[in-house]
Amino acid sequence: MNDNVVNRDGENHLRRRSLLAAAGVLGLTGGAVAVTRGEPARAAAAVTKKITIYAENLPGGLIGYGLTRGGATVPGPILEMYEGDTLEITLVNTTTQRLSIHPHGVDYSTESDGSPFNDSFNAPGETRTYTWRSHEMTTVAGRRFMPGSAGYWHYHDHALGTDHGTGGLAKGLYGALIVRRRGDVLPDKQITVVFNDMLINNRTAPNTPMFEANLGQRVEWIAIGHGSLFHTFHLHAHRWADNRTGMLEGPSDPSLVIDNKDLNPGSAFGFQVLAGEAVGPGAWMYHCHVQSHSDTGMAGIFLVRNADGTMPPGAQEAIDRFQGHQHKAASSAAAATATAPTHVHGGTGS
Amino acid sequence: MNDNVVNRDGENHLRRRSLLAAAGVLGLTGGAVAVTRGEPARAAAAVTKKITIYAENLPGGLIGYGLTRGGATVPGPILEMYEGDTLEITLVNTTTQRLSIHPHGVDYSTESDGSPFNDSFNAPGETRTYTWRSHEMTTVAGRRFMPGSAGYWHYHDHALGTDHGTGGLAKGLYGALIVRRRGDVLPDKQITVVFNDMLINNRTAPNTPMFEANLGQRVEWIAIGHGSLFHTFHLHAHRWADNRTGMLEGPSDPSLVIDNKDLNPGSAFGFQVLAGEAVGPGAWMYHCHVQSHSDTGMAGIFLVRNADGTMPPGAQEAIDRFQGHQHKAASSAAAATATAPTHVHGGTGS
Amino acid sequence: MNDNVVNRDGENHLRRRSLLAAAGVLGLTGGAVAVTRGEPARAAAAVTKKITIYAENLPGGLIGYGLTRGGATVPGPILEMYEGDTLEITLVNTTTQRLSIHPHGVDYSTESDGSPFNDSFNAPGETRTYTWRSHEMTTVAGRRFMPGSAGYWHYHDHALGTDHGTGGLAKGLYGALIVRRRGDVLPDKQITVVFNDMLINNRTAPNTPMFEANLGQRVEWIAIGHGSLFHTFHLHAHRWADNRTGMLEGPSDPSLVIDNKDLNPGSAFGFQVLAGEAVGPGAWMYHCHVQSHSDTGMAGIFLVRNADGTMPPGAQEAIDRFQGHQHKAASSAAAATATAPTHVHGGTGS
């Protein structure tokens, strides 16, 4: 795998353009979401945003989505919209294989389903437009509300290899999709982490992405599951509410607060943390908590730097240990993953 | 498998008598739940309803529950009650094997546990009565409330084959049980979908049930997991709140909104959608999102017709594609399911 | 396995000292949490509590945590604190292997991470102090709240066998950690139940713990998942809200009410039931609802005695059946667990 594709230190994820549909209205300048931390978003009325996405072959047999020709990554770009917005996506298939883009959570007619079942895909070399709409909650006879589109969703191929896109998913055709409710708190930085069979963002330790933030920055995680295995996502020293925003509405919000959550195929969830809140800076692990998975490479680093961006004591040593010593598969764990693809790296035992 | 047992187009599920315990009080006429869409239920005081359920052998080695002699189906009938109601179930075992009926969520004494552990089962040919009660929430020292019985539950055999009913579950002895809170919004149509090892309602694609509704109808899904494998339930182009009703209480309801949810053995959940809301009519897929499971047959069709019941453009073509082309197992996916029973149908590759 | 380690009838779990950080302030007398059932806790300001935990070898190749020398158990002691409290844990490693203690949910700096990655572990024979802090929710720009530490968490080894503690978990180095919000309802009794690969508290049926309570007692369950397999926890005849407390805040609390929940590696949840509420006393089963797991030994008994502590009719007979007849693996279920460690006991078929 090539660092031009997925930067080892994860910076490309954090710097990656987050495509907010209402970006123009918000005055975003095309880079990371530009907000004052903790400030609610001030968005105007619903907008329609037209974008082009390129599906491209990448080194190492991967295929990715990108917002520019030659700019594909694994995972693909984070796409964002507010409830009520529409995204018109022109997907350019630069490969020689059938593929598509299928979203979760948003509204689309059968032509934009992204499934061969509905004859909705790009033939090799074909360009095709998919339209994703969204809506706010609507009342039900004055009693309850049908939910709107807001959520931490995702998009992925649904046509390469099988009618369910199993081949496309294996190669990296996936990314995060966020639909916000107006007024939602916006983050400083964003991270997409995809547990895809025994890989994280199609990498294995110690080459998994290292995500970075400075102490106190509001970091938004979008976690996505793919493939055919079950997983649990765990982040050290941080926690979140298991609800739509990851935050509590107040003292009577009954939501569970967790730091470990099932992350199974087709599911996604998101949350925001203040990097190092109440724990301080340092190199913190995120990993699958299925023991046979973490032992064989499903782990990575969330590096929380000092507030001024300098390295905190001990962090470089932890990173060095991770490079050289971690993730030797325990023989006792191997039995339980006999059916899983093995991605054991050559680290020496600790 | 026989269309008298499980109608291929799923109509028997949608038309099936939903047994609301308070049916007499509500003036229901014995067919589908008769309500004005979106209207809250107006129910009288708690009632006791006595019913007879027949456990019967079915073609293809299946065993089902039914409300009439000769009327067993897989899944069994949807049973419903309001919090406070009681169901007295006389189970007639017409088979030559030990079996039982065990409910989730409701109240029962050890004699109605449905487990050999509590000596609560029907011997071959035996008739036995099980009593299921329910209750409303109760206050806890003025601070919080112990939950009532309301929920999307299920019932199943707990005695055939093993003391946990593994044999009965494999053969089809399961069904949905709904306990409503007074005032809950009632649906127009109801669907039971059971992920049971590698099968959906004990069928595999393309013979999985096709559920039908007209555009705008309020359709209630009850999803149940059984067997020994993990699954995720995904429905295209529709979403729901991950809470008791699938709807939001209002803008401060923190519930996650999802379109993909873990559906593991012994679990059940339910939700209501407005068929085709914000997306229009069409043939929409529901499937397990574990790639090796969808690729080998865990997928089906939710056909949303036009509001007048006619077929929308493209829907028949999609159905035809589903019949002939779908669900060829990808060789890359096969490894991960080596331990799972294989139910690959003979569809040609797409 | 030795009854000094894990008492077969589970009484040691129920009687085990629950270490409430604010115990002195609350006037607890060192035994079970002393509260009037249903009464909210009245706790004073945040406190710092210093304790010593011993990691010790146990019969049968197990290793456990204990609050006294020679007092280690599997699971370890239930540790409790209120939001704002601090626990200073001096861990004495009496074994010849590297090990640690790593908590979920609470606040700790990298030195207390309990991971080799952060050079935070006890060498063989070493004593080391770990500090766990906690905090209340904090407001976010006047709109929402970053969650506090309250939750049903757990702690475990993160260093024995592999850098993720896979060996320590397999041997029993795990326990429950509860962080309460001031005012939370306190229980009469507490139960820790750990699904660890194919074992419950490192035991298999019929030697799994039998937990006991009298009718109407408020019993708090803390369920924890470990290992490399997926599980679902089911309790017969009782249910709980799937939220932070297991209770509802009121009629508009949207929480799901459930009696079956995924219990996968690294996850924990807790809830309180009134023993036998609305169902009466009796021997009730708890078990993994994955059929191949319950059939091969992942089941146990929750014995609800009469309010005066006497045995209810039929309970002893059920216990006797459980000892002799249960959990013969069905051959049909065996295929699905071919990759799992097998822990089949020698019970005769039923």
From TrEMBL, chains A, B, C:
Keywords of this entry: Copper, Metal-binding, Oxidoreductase
Biased segments, Low complexity type: 329-340
Domain called Plastocyanin-like: residue spans: 73-182, 196-307
Region (Disordered): 327-350
One Pfam family here: Cu-oxidase_2
Record InterPro entries: Cu-oxidase-like_N, Cu-oxidase_C, Cu-oxidase_fam, Cu_oxidase_Cu_BS, Cupredoxin, TAT_signal
The protein's name in its UniProt record: Multicopper oxidase domain-containing protein
